Amino acid sequence: MSKEQEYLPLIAEDADVDTLPLTGHGPSARGRRKLTRWLIPALVASLIIETVTLVVLAAILGRKSTHPSCTVPGDQKVLYSPALGAVENQVQVYQLGFPGDMSPYQIPSSPKLDEMWSDLYNYGISRISKEEASLLPNKTSPIPGDPGYYIAELDVFHNLHCLNKVRMALDPDYYPDWRISTSNNHIATQKNATDHISHCVDWIRQSIMCHADTSVIVWQWAASLNETIVKGNVAHTCRKFDKITDWAKERLLVNAYDPFVHMEDDIVVPILHQEMP
Ligand SMILES: *[C@@H]1O[C@H](CO)[C@@H](O)[C@H](O)[C@H]1NC(C)=O
Ligand SMILES: *[C@@H]1O[C@H](CO)[C@@H](O)[C@H](O)[C@H]1NC(C)=O
Ligand SMILES: *[C@@H]1O[C@H](CO)[C@@H](O)[C@H](O)[C@H]1NC(C)=O
């Protein structure tokens, strides 16, 4: 019913017992007078408490909504990608990569390791619909012999390809075609991978800076070492890689793509998009 009745029990705790009715459904005339005496200050106090609570709550919620890990400011542009629908975050703890917490990718160079790396990106070339292609911020090409479909690759797969080549360049005795050649170590019969590896290192640098991971690496006391040590194997906010690979595998370009066939098409990329940084 009214606010008064809601607050009665509160008053009862503070008020003299004899000012409250012991029986009946409402306060007696005398009780009502006394109640009013208590009621008004109590209501005012309640209102103040409520107001303060609301202000504090608003402050907490307000702070939360601008917390950098929770939201991205709404006015920032995210360029269209046909895979945006497959983006889903999850919390993931990285493997440290030192003994005791090694990842499966740290085994020595071998056909098995090559296959594991290849499994991370060898489905990276996709066929997307013309409608999707027309929404891209830049032009891509129709697939010869596959009317209505266009070729596309998500950069995550190109990144992984590049990192794999860098990995191979680090073990040139096992991967002679990926040796970085200087006058000191050049082997005449081998390819010189310097330019490709240089491209890859710089591409990965740009990608890391572009995605600027703000997960926090911490320092913790390690009693066994008597030392505060840096701990990188903490939780990160990650995109579910499986969902992105599912997207790519569903759209895998199976047939060989002939880059020497030029296909005319009528998709016009708006000037506005072309000018985007
Ligand atoms: C489109 O491609 C051109 C040439 O590669 C490039 O200069 C431009 O920045 C690209 N625009 C976008 C929005 O990707
Ligand atoms: C390998 O390629 C790099 C980059 O093009 C070049 O600077 C270097 O001299 C090459 N190495 C040899 C031995 O030719
Ligand atoms: C850690 O340092 C303390 C004080 O220097 C020393 O007494 C203790 O033996 C050390 N413990 C280990 C495990 O090194």
UniProtKB/TrEMBL annotation:
Keywords attached to this entry: Membrane, Transmembrane, Transmembrane helix
A UniProt-annotated Pfam family: UstYa
Family matches, as InterPro entries: UstYa-like
Keyword Transmembrane (UniProt): yes
Associated pathway: Mycotoxin biosynthesis
Keyword Transmembrane helix: yes
Family: Belongs to the ustYa family.
Annotated protein name in UniProt: Tat pathway signal sequence
Species this protein is from: Roridomyces roridus
Lineage: Eukaryota, Fungi, Dikarya, Basidiomycota, Agaricomycotina
